[in-house]
C-alpha cells in the first residue's frame, strides 16, 4: 500500500513537471524572434506556385513579420491571404522554434496545397482551368498542365454544370482517360469528342446519360472497330437512344 502511494506521488510530480516544462517552452517560444519564412508543398502537384511569390504575399500581409516574435504573428490572417490565390486550395501556417548553433530562432512555416486542374477551357473569351470543384484557375506559363481540353462554344456555366461531371468520370476510367483527347462544344450545345486513336469523331450530343452512351461506344469499339480498320469511320454518333450511327469515310 505504501509503495503504491509513493508511486502515485511520483507520477503526480512527473505530470506537474511535464506540464510546467511545456508551459515554459510555450511561453519561451512566443518570445522567439521570427527570422525566416519557409514555404512547403508537394513538388509532385500539377501546379506549383513559385515559393518566392508566396513569401512576398506573407510579407505584404505583414510588412514587419521578420521583426516580430512568433507570438505576435497572426497565422490565420496570413492563411486567409494566401488562400485568396486562385491556384491555392488550402494554406496552413504554423510557427517553429528551431535550435541552431546553441541558440533558438523562429521560423514561420507556410504549408500549401494547390488546386488540381482537371480540365482546360478555351473559348472566344480566353482560357482557364477548372478544378474538380468547378473553381476557376487562371492559366500561367509557370505551371503548364496536361489535362483534357474543352473548346468551342463553351461558357463557364456550361463547363461547370455539363462538362465537369463528364470530365471527372473520364478521368477515373483508364480506357476513356487514354482515349479521349479533346472536347468540342458546338453552337447548339452538342458535344463532340476527339479520340486519340481512330481518326473519327464521336458525336456525344448532350451530356445526359453520358455513362450509358460511353458504355455503348465501348461495346462498339469491341464488336466493330476491333475487327476492322480504326480509320474506317469518319463519325460515330451516340445522339440517338441506345444506338450507334456510324458514318463511313
Number of helices: 6
CATH topology of the largest domain: Rossmann fold
Main β-sheet description: 9 strands, mixed
Please indicate the percent range of residues in DSSP E strands (runs of 2 or more): 25-35%
Q: What structural class is derived from the secondary structure elements?
A: alpha/beta
Say what oligomer this is.
Answer: single chain
Q: How would you concisely characterize the structure shown here?
A:
The protein is α/β, with parallel strands linked by helices and 249 residues long. 34% of the residues lie in helices and 31% in strands.
Describe the 3D structure.
This protein has 249 residues and is α/β, with parallel strands linked by helices. It has two domains: 82 residues, Ubiquitin-like (UB roll), CATH 3.10.20; 132 residues, Rossmann fold, CATH 3.40.50.11690. It is 34% helix and 31% strand. It is built from six helices and twelve strands. The strands form two sheets. Strands 6-5-4-7-8-9-10-11-12 form a nine-stranded mixed β-sheet. A hairpin with a 4-residue loop joins strand 5 and strand 6. Helix 2 packs across helix 3. The N terminus is likely disordered.
Amino acid at each position: 500500500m505504501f509503495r503504491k502511494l509513493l508511486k502515485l506521488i511520483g507520477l503526480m510530480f512527473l505530470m506537474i513537471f511535464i506540464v510546467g516544462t511545456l508551459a515554459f517552452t510555450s511561453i519561451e517560444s512566443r518570445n522567439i524572434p521570427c527570422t525566416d519564412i519557409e514555404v512547403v508543398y508537394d513538388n509532385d502537384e500539377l501546379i506549383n506556385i513559385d515559393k518566392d511569390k508566396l513569401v512576398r504575399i506573407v510579407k505584404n500581409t505583414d510588412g514587419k513579420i521578420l521583426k516580430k516574435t512568433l507570438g505576435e504573428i497572426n497565422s490565420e490572417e496570413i492563411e486567409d491571404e494566401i488562400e485568396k490565390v486562385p491556384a491555392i486550395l488550402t494554406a496552413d501556417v504554423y510557427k517553429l522554434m528551431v535550435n541552431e548553433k546553441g541558440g533558438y530562432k523562429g521560423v514561420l512555416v507556410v504549408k500549401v496545397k494547390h488546386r488540381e486542374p482537371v480540365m482546360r477551357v478555351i473559348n472566344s473569351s480566353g482560357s482557364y482551368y477548372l478544378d474538380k470543384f468547378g473553381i476557376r484557375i487562371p492559366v500561367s506559363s509557370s505551371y503548364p498542365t496536361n489535362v483534357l481540353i474543352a473548346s468551342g462554344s463553351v461558357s463557364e456555366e456550361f463547363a461547370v454544370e455539363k462538362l465537369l461531371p463528364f470530365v471527372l468520370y473520364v478521368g477515373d476510367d483508364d480506357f476513356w482517360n487514354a482515349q479521349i483527347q479533346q472536347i468540342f462544344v458546338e453552337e447548339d450545345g452538342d458535344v463532340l469528342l476527339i479520340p486519340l486513336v481512330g481518326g473519327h469523331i464521336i458525336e456525344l450530343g448532350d451530356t445526359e446519360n453520358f455513362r450509358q452512351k460511353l458504355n455503348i461506344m465501348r461495346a462498339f469499339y469491341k464488336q466493330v472497330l476491333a475487327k476492322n480498320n480504326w480509320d474506317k469511320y469518319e463519325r460515330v454518333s451516340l445522339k440517338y437512344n441506345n444506338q450507334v450511327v456510324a458514318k463511313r469515310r
